[in-house]
Design goal:
The chain is α+β, with helices and mostly antiparallel strands. It has four helices and six strands. The chain is elongated.
């Protein structure tokens, strides 16, 4: 005698598959979005290498900030409304990593630059770059990344920190600032 599945058994299996699909789909969607944002950040790195080259090839006597502003003007389409950006651990940035003037770029990203009144060693300022603009999640390490601005280079946050420090800073308990370099060196998001 041949035994077949009952309608109830098939329904239970179908419900189990649906539950698994609903649990797995957001994780893979989040990973896909994070991979896309990380790829955009890698492209931004090469763009800023070119921008830095343009700033340094200007032979005028203007200071670095003025030369930078004139070069970056070609990448900016206008002002963007300020919006809240959080750290990866859900807290809000302190004054150092809080930016005021947001600019929309030609590829609909948002950037903000903060030059210090007095350079901190050879560090002149900070640059924040939100690869997908004001669209969510607006979180450091997910879609927001940063560069230190030096007179002789742009450098991702945490570049000189050990990989273990970068990984910890890029975890759910970290700020996300170190993701700016961690993803560039091949670190994975969790």
């Amino acid at each position: 005698m041949k035994k077949a599945f009952t309608i109830i058994e098939v329904s239970i299996l179908f419900v189990i598959f649906l539950i698994v699909a609903f649990l797995v789909a957001p994780l893979s969607l989040d990973d896909t979005m994070q991979a896309r944002n990380t790829s955009r950040w890698r492209n931004v790195q090469s763009d800023f290498a070119n921008i830095f080259y343009s700033v340094n090839t200007q032979n005028n006597e203007e200071n670095f900030q003025n030369k930078f502003d004139s070069v970056i003007a070609g990448e900016v389409t206008g002002d963007a409304k300020p919006y809240k950006i959080t750290f990866l651990n859900g807290t809000f940035p302190n004054n150092t990593y809080r930016f005021n003037e947001y600019k929309t770029t030609t590829n609909n990203a948002v950037l903000s630059v903060k030059f210090f009144d007095k350079p901190q060693g050879d560090l002149l300022g900070l640059l924040m770059y939100d690869v997908n603009g004001p669209s969510k999640p607006n979180v450091w390490g997910k879609d927001v990344f940063g560069l230190n601005i030096y007179s002789d280079r742009f450098e991702p946050f945490c570049k000189n920190d050990s990989v273990s420090i970068q990984k910890q800073g890029c975890s759910k308990d970290g700020t996300g600032l170190c993701c700016s370099n961690y993803y560039l060196i091949g670190g994975s998001f969790e």
